[in-house]
């Protein structure tokens, strides 16, 4: 169907605005036709993908191989040619452990402490993030008063820099922070939240959920809005209870979006660093020291840095992420096939 | 076509000038504890008026940038032309030898020779730069709190235990959260370690295992953190060897006794003003002696500079006697310049407390032990400091016992030594 174009000033203004676009299109049309004649239709896909693949190669693959090379070297020198080849020594050092569940029995105890902390963090943060994002998306999908306003409220923290997020919550949670000020006003004793191992850990989980939930809520909300309304109407006519409709209609149809969210949340959770570094600095002690901070401190921040050990730890972290992502994608495909068979 | 070529050439020139140092540019990386950044800017403005061909760019950064980012830049063969650094010895391979470039090398040897070895590779006679200030670690007491509590400020020969007892009494009486605080720094821990008889340097010049002297103080220290005598906020507030100061707690009147150093004097003078009375008290005594630690910040030339002659001119200017004198008097820093020290300094402050504090630190410099004087020029100081902070803070947070922390400190230092191939 052809849209009616109103005649008059608006139309001529639109055409004037489109003129440079048309000019640009005409300018690239000829060279593109020439490329197509040389490569054929099939080769055009490669042609368009090439810039992206080049960027990916230079900024992702190349650093990965350089990082791997670093992990095979020792010493404190920064440049690869100045470093001595030590083979798998850095990996052996990381895995030199009498009992993996007791970091104190490991040569690199802080690495295993960071691994343990990260595992707990991922477990809690990912499950709570998915739960809260889903609940929020379900609520925002309903006919609410000022729905756009509420959507903006939940999305707003996503726009903040992680450093700002860390600072805001530090001001709230520190000894003379806003929370203690409020508690004191209500007659309670102030508490040093960030000096308590459990509260600090909980704070890092809570703050990261607060900061990123809006983004995942938005993805889930888009998925919810794509579910045809007539399915719910049919279910309602059949007398299906809302809970059953959620489990039988909403959740299965939302699964592709949910899978994307799970993968993104998981990757982000394993990589957690900036807001926690500002909020707790990894403390108290090492109770909120996560793997990325360990890598940063080993490679850059400590006296007599060890880039090889940091590189080995980051390769291991990358490997874990790849495995987790593949498992999830595999499970997702299995679920899709199962759904299709039904 | 010609027009396009001209535009491309202009763009290329623009890009080149935006990334590379221009001839005559001298970039200084500088951090400030107090007002010294402003004073330096003023001095450099004067220099540029006198030397129109040299453009000095002053980058004011935080101390953590100097500590964490500058080393990486230097390893990569980059960095500023001049930097203000505290970790001088361990990075000495990156400093430029100014000896053939400065106007009068004998002047430098005569006036800064005492600390020249702190910033040059072992065995060389290189002139790398000069100390912008000599610092002495020591304590500060909130006199108003002591007076209000009716507790006498411990005297000159008071021990760490005496101070802990008095500070605790005052804090309880005045309902102040922290009786004592010591910066989260290996340098700061080392003063009392040495006072308790500690010695870090073995006969072959490499790090020695922790001895009984250091262990005794560290056990006491961890106990103080656990029972609330020492501020827990500072020591458990981070992982690793991250630096944390308790200066803000002292400035806010939340702290009775603060062990930091002479560099805090201008900061306190500016920020405390007349809010309360405070005094510098030198270093408390341990069983062995009453030493604190010495050290300071040095201004060093970086050997990757594209403009070594201009750098040498700037360094000659900043190291000249009248400039050092003016810088010290305006910043309230203790100078390292022998000639300036020999003459009377007129510190530019109306704050009698600051003047008295500076005199107290000059007095405290007389009780420095030989070991304390050696450590700033010892290659492994920072390896020891880093391990001390990391493990003591874990013990303070209750993650490991002090004995486990001691074993880890020794193994961490041994690993660092091995990593460097020594």
Could you provide a short overview of the structure?
Chain A is mainly alpha-helical and 342 residues long.
Architecture overview:
The complex is a heterodimer of chains A (342) and B (422). Chain A is mostly helical. Chain A has 2 domains: 9-51, no CATH class; 80-341, MetI-like fold, CATH 1.10.3720.10. The model of chain A is unreliable at 1-8 (pLDDT under 50). Chain A has a two-stranded antiparallel sheet with strand order 1-2. Helix content of chain A is 73%, strand content 1%. With 422 residues, chain B is α/β, with parallel strands linked by helices. Chain B has 2 domains: 21-134 and 295-342, D-Maltodextrin-Binding Protein, domain 2 (3-Layer(aba) Sandwich), CATH 3.40.190; 137-294 and 363-419, D-Maltodextrin-Binding Protein, domain 2. Chain B has 18 helices and 8 strands. In chain B, strand 1 (25-31), helix 2 and strand 2 form a beta-alpha-beta unit. In chain B, helix 7 crosses helix 8 (212-227). Chain B starts with a helix and ends with a helix. Mean pLDDT of chain B is 90; it is low at 8-20.
């Amino acid at each position: 169907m052809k849209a009616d174009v109103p005649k008059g000033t608006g139309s001529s203004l639109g055409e004037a605005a489109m003129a440079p676009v048309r000019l640009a299109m005409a300018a690239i049309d000829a060279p593109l036709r020439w490329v197509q004649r040389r490569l054929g239709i099939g080769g055009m896909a490669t042609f368009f993908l090439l810039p992206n693949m080049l960027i990916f190669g230079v900024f992702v693959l190349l650093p990965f191989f350089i990082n791997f090379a670093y992990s095979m070297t020792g010493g404190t020198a920064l440049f690869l040619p100045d470093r001595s080849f030590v083979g798998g020594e850095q990996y052996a050092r990381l895995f030199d452990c009498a009992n993996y569940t007791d970091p104190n029995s490991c040569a690199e105890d802080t690495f295993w402490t960071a691994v343990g902390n990260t595992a707990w963090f991922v477990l809690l943060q990912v499950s709570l993030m998915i739960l809260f994002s889903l609940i929020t998306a379900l609520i925002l999908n309903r006919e609410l008063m000022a729905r756009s306003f509420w959507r903006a409220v939940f999305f707003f923290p996503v726009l903040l820099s992680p450093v700002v997020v860390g600072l805001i919550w530090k001001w709230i949670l520190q000894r003379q922070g806003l929370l203690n000020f409020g508690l004191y006003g209500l007659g309670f004793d102030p508490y040093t939240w960030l000096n308590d191992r459990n509260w600090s850990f909980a704070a890092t989980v809570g703050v990261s959920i607060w900061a990123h939930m809006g983004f995942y809520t938005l993805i889930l909300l888009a998925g919810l809005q794509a579910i045809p309304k007539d399915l719910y109407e049919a279910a309602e006519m059949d007398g299906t209870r809302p809970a059953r409709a959620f489990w039988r209609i909403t959740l299965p149809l939302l699964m592709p979006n949910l899978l994307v969210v799970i993968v993104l949340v998981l990757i982000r959770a394993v990589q957690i660093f900036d807001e926690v570094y500002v909020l707790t600095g990894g403390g108290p002690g090492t109770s909120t020291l996560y793997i990325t901070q360990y890598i940063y401190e080993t490679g850059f921040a400590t006296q007599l840095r060890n880039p090889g050990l940091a590189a080995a730890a980051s390769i291991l972290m990358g490997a874990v992420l790849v495995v987790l992502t593949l498992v999830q994608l595999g499970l997702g495909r299995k679920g899709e096939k199962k759904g299709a068979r039904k | 076509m010609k027009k396009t070529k001209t535009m491309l050439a202009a763009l290329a020139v623009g890009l080149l000038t935006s990334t590379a140092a221009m001839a005559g540019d001298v970039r200084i990386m500088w951090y400030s504890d107090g007002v010294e950044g402003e004073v330096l800017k003023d001095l450099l403005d004067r220099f540029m008026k006198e030397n129109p061909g040299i453009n000095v760019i002053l980058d004011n950064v935080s101390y953590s940038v100097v500590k964490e980012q500058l080393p990486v830049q230097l390893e990569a063969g980059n960095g500023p032309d001049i930097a203000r650094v505290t970790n001088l010895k361990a990075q000495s391979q990156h400093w430029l030898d100014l000896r053939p470039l400065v106007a009068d090398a004998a002047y430098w040897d005569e006036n800064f020779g005492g600390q020249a070895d702190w910033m040059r590779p072992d065995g060389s006679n290189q002139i790398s730069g000069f100390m912008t200030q000599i610092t002495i670690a020591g304590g500060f007491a909130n006199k108003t709190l002591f007076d209000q509590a009716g507790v006498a400020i411990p005297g000159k020969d008071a021990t760490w235990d005496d101070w802990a007892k008095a500070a605790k009494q005052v804090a309880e009486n005045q309902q102040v959260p922290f009786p004592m605080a010591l910066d989260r720094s290996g340098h700061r821990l080392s003063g009392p370690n040495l006072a308790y008889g500690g010695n870090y340097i073995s006969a072959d010049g490499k790090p020695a295992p922790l001895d009984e002297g250091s262990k005794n103080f560290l056990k006491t220290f961890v106990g103080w953190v656990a029972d609330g005598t020492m501020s827990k906020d500072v020591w458990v507030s981070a992982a690793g060897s991250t630096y944390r100061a308790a200066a803000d707690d002292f400035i806010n009147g939340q702290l009775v006794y603060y062990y930091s150093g002479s560099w805090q004097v201008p900061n306190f003078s500016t920020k405390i003003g007349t809010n309360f009375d405070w005094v510098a008290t030198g270093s408390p005594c341990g069983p062995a002696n009453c030493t604190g630690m010495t050290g300071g910040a040095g201004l060093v030339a970086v050997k990757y500079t594209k403009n070594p002659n201009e750098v040498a001119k700037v360094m000659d200017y900043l190291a000249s006697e009248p400039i050092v004198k003016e810088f010290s008097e305006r910043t309230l820093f203790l100078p390292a310049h022998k000639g300036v020290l020999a003459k009377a300094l007129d510190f530019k402050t109306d704050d009698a407390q600051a003047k008295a504090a500076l005199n107290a630190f000059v007095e405290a410099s007389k009780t420095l032990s030989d070991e304390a004087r050696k450590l700033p020029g010892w290659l492994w100081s920072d390896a020891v400091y880093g391990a001390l902070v990391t493990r003591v803070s874990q013990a303070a947070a209750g993650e490991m016992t002090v004995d486990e922390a001691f074993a880890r400190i020794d193994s961490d230092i041994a690993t660092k030594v091995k990593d460097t191939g020594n």
